[in-house]
Specification:
single chain; 73% helix; elongated
Length: 245
């Protein structure tokens, strides 16, 4: 409790000295960060533990809080910090980010080993120091900048793959929905046809009965053409003899 009170006093003293220019600059820095890397938003190294994430978020969020910062985009910067903390404190999201960071490190290390093969002096020094030489190099500003850029590249590629996969999923869902609608429409037309067929059943049965009685099929009052007589003086009709068995 005492430690927390001391920390609050230090923060209060710090923000009393922070001017409007510093607050505005911090807003601009946050908004210029790579959107897929929350470590950049909180200005933290990639190996920062969750406790450091909480502490840094508290410090920066107070600095750019819309109630204290007059910058027109302070609200956006404040929201970006909140999202960054949420991602870094989420176990699944944090694990994903660390996996991308480790993959970026391995790529840079492999590149470094290829370069050392061409530089015998550095190669010998690396072997003699038993890894200390490489550890010092990875702590250097040069390596950290390369790592930062490589992480950006990897995260961008992963996000692009995710969006492509989401697009394919959406397209497949759209196709399935269209097939489902077409199937529903087909069954709807089939039911309507069956209903219409059933509605005309009585008329069809009646027509069939009339046909069976008269041997004729046709509408009542229908005018039929006259039949020609067998002996037609104009010889326009000739009756062929019927063979009897």
């Amino acid at each position: 409790m005492a430690a927390q009170t001391e920390e609050d006093l230090i923060l209060k003293s710090f923000f009393a000295e922070v001017g409007e220019v510093e607050r505005d600059n911090e807003v601009l820095r946050i908004l210029a960060c790579f959107k897929l890397n929350p470590f950049e938003h909180l200005n933290l190294s990639f190996d920062s533990p969750p406790e450091e994430v909480k502490k840094q978020y508290r410090k920066l969020s107070l600095m750019v809080h819309p109630d204290k910062c007059k910058h027109p985009q302070a609200k956006e910067a404040f929201a970006a910090l909140a999202k960054a903390q949420q991602l870094l404190l989420d176990p699944q999201e944090r694990e994903y980010l660390l996996s991308q960071i480790n993959a970026a490190k391995e790529e840079l290390r492999a590149k470094r080993r290829k370069e050392l093969k061409k530089d015998n002096a550095s190669k010998i020094k690396s072997l003699v120091d038993e890894g200390k030489y490489e550890h010092q190099y990875e702590q250097s500003q040069e390596f950290q900048q390369q790592l930062k850029l490589k992480v950006r590249e990897n995260l961008t590629q992963q996000e692009w793959r995710r969006r492509k996969m989401q697009m394919r999923i959406s397209e497949e869902e759209g196709r399935l929905k269209k097939d489902e609608e077409e199937t529903k429409e087909m069954w709807k037309r089939k039911r309507e046809h069956e209903e219409q067929w059933e509605e005309t059943r009585e008329g069809r049965v009646s027509s069939w009965r009339d046909f069976m009685k008269t041997g004729k099929k046709g509408k009542k009052g229908e005018i039929r053409p006259p039949k020609l007589k067998t002996e037609d003086p104009n010889k326009s009709y000739v009756q062929r003899p019927v063979k009897r068995v």
